[in-house]
């Protein structure tokens, strides 16, 4: 946890520190970023950072959790529990893409946790990050099956895993050079796709997932 002094500074300055840190960690990775660089990027004195955080590790952990809160708010705050799984999946994917476009640094931070040497942070953050989404997807798939809107023969856990895998790869393809190249090779898109290409890719992805979920009679009748 950060020191109490972090919450005593102006909101604009606090947000600048956190967003600057997120951007630099995303660009250089945890190991290749130091507190002097972080202070310079945030336009504060190096000593000020130590007034807010005990260490670089504490700052990194807090920035990741800050990004997680922003992401969850962006993706899930507008979900209506009365919506069926098809409406919810579409909303999750569309809001996730919007978040990745507005805050690519936080998506990059998520991807960086899987890198070599990051196991300590994975132990602290990954289960917390994944459990919320996993539980939500499993719940709405089961509800869809109970309502007859989703194929009864689907393995709930496996389908939830595959939906989220597709979601993560979609967002990664918007922020990571490696995944942009991968996307271009598989889908024959530009390595820096236009907004129109991203929208077509998003629509096709959502429809693919919907098709996987629909009972045969529903699929036959559109």
Overall tally of domains = 1
Please indicate the percent range of residues in DSSP E strands (runs of 2 or more): under 5%
> How confident overall, as mean pLDDT?
92
Q: Uncertain spans, ≥5 residues at pLDDT below 50?
A: none
How many strand units?
Answer: 0
Helix/strand order, N-terminal first: HHHHHHHHHHH
Please, what is the CATH homologous superfamily? Tetracycline Repressor, domain 2
CATH architecture: Orthogonal Bundle
Structural class: mainly alpha
Question: What is the third-level CATH name, the topology?
Answer: Tetracycline Repressor, domain 2
Structure, explained:
The protein is mainly α. It has one domain: Tetracycline Repressor, domain 2. The chain has 11 helices and no strands. The relative contact order is 0.10.
Question: Which descriptors would you attach to this protein?
Answer:
222 residues, Tetracycline Repressor, domain 2, mainly alpha
Q: SSE layout and pairings?
A:
Elements (H helix, E strand, L loop, with lengths): L10 H18 L6 H8 L3 H7 L3 H21 L8 H18 L1 H9 L6 H28 L9 H20 L1 H11 L7 H19 L2 H5 L2
Helix pairs in contact: 1-2, 1-4, 1-6, 2-3, 4-5, 4-6, 4-7, 5-6, 5-8, 5-10, 6-8, 7-8, 8-9
